[in-house]
Design a protein that fits this description.
The protein has about 200 residues and is mostly helical. The protein is built from eight helices and no strands.
């Protein structure tokens, strides 16, 4: 199958997005640049491997994901300690719950309709990326290491020099923040971006 080459403007935008993601994960601009260059070279070299089952950019991000995982796992230097990551305040979600720990009626999550259908829409992923960029940097890093890169808690804790308890708290707060953002920007508008 022959896949048309992306337009130059599309490549510039894709490279920018790849680099932003790589810098977030690797915390080193030079290493991120290397990972992106290797990714784009691999995509050009192995373009015949693109089966067209997803968008080309999704396929390229998949290549970058593997490059980042390899880079993180092959690091020989000591990880730079971040101490405890607490970028989202401990009480950030207190207003959502009653003193007994149950949801306040007005804050209870609304039905999300058909989330499977939303996942197949490009507009949903634009809103998700927007919500992700609104997370504090280290919180987003922990979330993406777990949910996108597939690292387990032990690997995340080793890379970021945090405790397992801190990792779980950060993941919980990230998921709550993303849920609230998606509720407001996607599901409240029944499938359309709201500003």
């Amino acid at each position: 199958m022959s896949v048309p080459a992306p337009a130059a403007a599309d490549l510039v935008g894709l490279r920018r997005d790849l680099l932003r993601f790589a810098v977030l994960q690797l915390r080193d601009e030079a290493a991120a640049e290397d990972a992106v260059q290797e990714t784009l070279l691999a995509a050009c070299r192995d373009g015949a491997g693109f089966a067209g089952r997803a968008q080309w950019s999704t396929w390229v991000f998949g290549i970058l994901r593997h490059k980042i995982v390899d880079a993180i796992r092959q690091r020989v230097r000591q990880p730079q300690p971040l101490a405890e990551i607490d970028e989202i305040p401990e009480d950030a979600f207190d207003d959502l719950f009653r003193p007994d720990g149950h949801w306040r009626a007005e804050e209870r999550p609304a039905a999300w309709g058909d989330p499977e259908a939303a996942l197949s829409r490009a507009e949903f992923w634009e809103v998700f990326r927007l919500c992700l960029t609104r997370l504090p940097e280290n919180t987003a890093r922990v979330f993406m290491m777990r949910e996108y890169l597939g690292f387990d808690t032990r690997e995340i804790c080793g890379e970021l020099s945090i405790t397992a308890a801190n990792c779980w708290v950060v993941l919980h707060r990230a998921r709550m923040s993303l849920r609230l953002c998606l509720q407001e920007r996607w599901f409240a508008g029944e499938g359309g971006m709201s500003c």
